[in-house]
Amino acid sequence: MLEKNYFELLGLPVAFVIDPTLLDQNYRNLQSEVHPDRFAAAPAADRLRSIQVATQVNEAYQTLKSPIARGRYLLQLNGVDTQEETNTAMPAAFLMQQMEWREAIEDASAARDISALDQLLKELRQAAKTLEAELQNSLDQQHDFAKAAEAVRKLRFLDKVRDEIEHAIEALEGNL
Amino acid sequence: MALLQIAEPGQSAAPHQHKLAVGIDLGTTNSLVATVRSGMSVVLHDDKGRALLPSVVHYLADGSTDVGYEAQAQQSRDPQNTIISAKRFMGRGVHDIPDLGHHPYRFVDSPGMLQLSTVAGPKSPVEVSAEILKTLKARAEKSLGGELTGAVITVPAYFDDAQRQATKDAAKLAGLHVLRLLNEPTAAAVAYGLDNGSEGIFVIYDLGGGTFDVSILRLSKGVFEVLATNGDSALGGDDFDRRVFCWILEQTKLPPIGPEDTRLLLTKAREAKEQLTDHDETRITCVLSTKQVIDLTLTHQAFAEATQYLVTKTLSPTRKALRDARIGIEDVQGVVMVGGATRMPQIQHAVAEFFGQEPLTNLDPDKVVALGAAIQANVLAGNKSENELLLLDVIPLSLGLETMGGLTERIIPRNATIPVARAQDFTTFKDGQTAMSIHVVQGERDLIADCRSLARFELRGIPPMAAGAARIRVTFQVDADGLLSVSARELASGVEANIVVKPSYGLSDDEIANMLQAGFSNAQDDKQARALAEARVEANRLLEAISAALTKDGDALLNAEERQSLEIQMAALRETANGIDHRAITASIDALNHASETFAARRMDASVKQALTGHTLNELSL
Questions:
Q1: In chain A, which among 38-77 make CB contacts under 8 A with chain B?
Q2: Is the pTM here over 0.80, yes or no?
Q3: Which of A105, B9, B359, B408 is most exposed by smallest CB count within 10 Å?
Q4: What is the complex's ipTM, to 2 decimals?
C-alpha cells in the first residue's frame, strides 16, 4: 500500500488539476480509517502500521494540496528534477519583477507601512495564480516538462518573496 | 455542562464490555478527572463533592504526601515542602526559570531536569506530578468501581517534546496507561464542538495558570482539524499573581523576605486578582513573620495597568497562529475561552476587541478540557463503535538538526499535521567511522543556540566504510502524542543503526526505574513482583486486542493455516503469562507482535480500500 503514488493513495486521477473538495473528503475519509486514534487499543503491530500509513496519508495530502508541491511531485513521477536549488537562470523580466518587489518591501518596512505590505501580498498571490495556470497548462495539456519545471522554479522564487513580506509584517507588528 | 451521546439502536456496548477510561486535565493550578458514563461526559468529584484538585503536593519527612486541598492548607506554614505549579518546571532546567527568588522553593540544578529539595529528599517535577495523577487515579477507580484501562492526559499545545515526555513519565510513575497525550485547546474544542454541534473555524484561547495556548481549528462533521497552534508555555495566571506580588513589594518597599512571607504574599496576590474579577477594588491585608502589617488597596485600574503587558503578550502568538493558518479575523466563526485566567475582565475585553466579536464562555472554563479529554478517552479505549470523532492535530514547534557552524536545518515545519515523518541522509567524514551524533532541536530560530535542545541521538553500528561512502538515512517520526522517535538505516548494507537517546531535559530510563522502585517503600512490593504484574497486564491487553481483531476480520483476511499459526502463538503467550518469569512473558509478547504483522498490514489495506470505495459509492448515489 505504501507503493501507491500520492494521487492513487488519495483516490485522485494523476493530473495537475484536482478537485479540492474531493481531495479534502478523501483525505478525511482515509484518516478516519487509518489514524492512530483508531488503533489506540489495538495490537502493537496495528499501531505501528497505522502510524506509517497515517504519516504517508498526511504527506500525500500536504503535497497534493499545494500547487507548487503538486507540480514538483508530478514532475518527479515523470523522472524530472525541478532543479530548484541549482538552476537559478531566469528571464530578465522575471528577475526585474523580483527586484522591484524586494525594493517595495524595503520601502514599506522603512515607512512602517503594513498596509503597503498587505498590498504586496495581494499582488504576489495574483502572480502566483498566473504561474499556476501556466504550470497546469504545461503539465496537463502540453506535457512540456521543461516548461513545467521552470514554472515550479519561478513559483519557488515567489514563495521566498512571500516569506520576506510576512517576515517584514511580523517585524513591524513587534513580533521578532 | 453535560454532553449527550445517543447511540444508534443495537450499537450500544454491553455493560460488561465497557472499558473504564478517563480524561485527565493535569493543570498548573488545578487538576481534574472526567469520564463518559451512560453516554455523558462528567467530571468526577472527591468524597467531599469537589471537582477540582489543587495541583499542590506537600511532602512530609517520612516520605508521605498530602495532595490537593490538604496540601494547600500547608503552603503558608511549610512553603519549601509544599510544591505548587510543578507543571511550570516539567522538562525544564534551573536556568530556564526566571526570577528564582520569587519562588519559595529550594531548587537543585541537576542534569536533565531541575529538582526541588524537600524534607523527603530531592523531588523531580515528574514525581510531583505523579502524586497528583495517583490521587486522580484513585478517585476515578473508587468512583467507577474498577481498574482503569487507560487515560487521556492533556498537555498545553505549545509543550515541547521534553515537557510532553515528562508528562508521560509522570503517568508511568502513577501507574496510568496513557491512551493519548491530547492538546488542551483541542480537548476544549471537542467538548465545545460536540456540545454545540458547531461547524466552521474556531479559535481556542486557552490561558491557564502557567501556560498560554492559542489554537485555530476547523470543525466539520466530527472532524476536528487543527490549522495552526501557537502560544507561550511560560505565560499564565501565575504571572498576573507575580505582578501583583511585585506591586506589593514596590508599594511597601519591603526588605528581602523569606519563603513563608513570599508564599503568603503570593497567595494574597492571587486572591486580590480573583477579587478584582467581580469588584472594582480589593483590600490586601496580612501580617508578615517580621510582624510588619500590610494594608493596601488595589484598584482594578491599577491592576489592569500593571498587567497590560501580559495581556498584550498573548496577542503576538495569536497573530502568528492566524498567519500560519492563512486565515483572517473575518474567517473566525467563534472564539472559545478556556482556563481560569480567562475570567479576568481585561482578558475578555482584549480578546473581544482583537476578534471583533464576543468570546464564547458558555462552558465552564475550568472543566471543558477534562470533559473533552474524557470524550476522546472513551473513543480510544474502544467503547464507541461509531467512528465519529477524528482529531487531526499538529506539531507546535519546528524540529531541526544542528549542522556545521551551529546553524539549524529545519526538517519538520511547525504546524505539520501529525503523525509526520521526514528522512534526512547523512554520510561519514572519517574512514571506518561507525558512529555519529545527531543533535535535534525545537524552535524557529536559525541558530542552534537560540533553539531548545531536544536530545542527542547517537547512531552506532554503522558498517565501517571509506569516508563519504556510507549513506545513512535517518528518519524522524513524530507520533500522535507529538513525541519524536528516530530510526536510522545504512542504505547500501541495509543495516539498522542502534540509537541511544540522550534527552537534554528528560529523565533516563534508569532514573525512572529508580523512581518507580523508590515509590514503593513497602518490602512486599519488590521489583520482580511489579515487573511480573506489568508484563501480565500487557500480555492480556495484547491478547484481547488480537482476539477482537480476529473476531472482526479473521475470516475475511486470513486463511485457516495463518489463523491457526497466530492462535498457537496466542496460546503460547497465555501459557507463559500464567508463569512467573516476566522476561519470558515479554519475549512472548514480542513474538506475538511480530507474528501478527502480516495480519495488521492486511487490515490496514482493507481499511484504506473501504475509505475510498465508501466515498465512490456516495458519489454514484448522487
A1: 38, 40-46, 48-51, 53-55, 58-59, 61-62
A2: yes
A3: B9
A4: 0.89
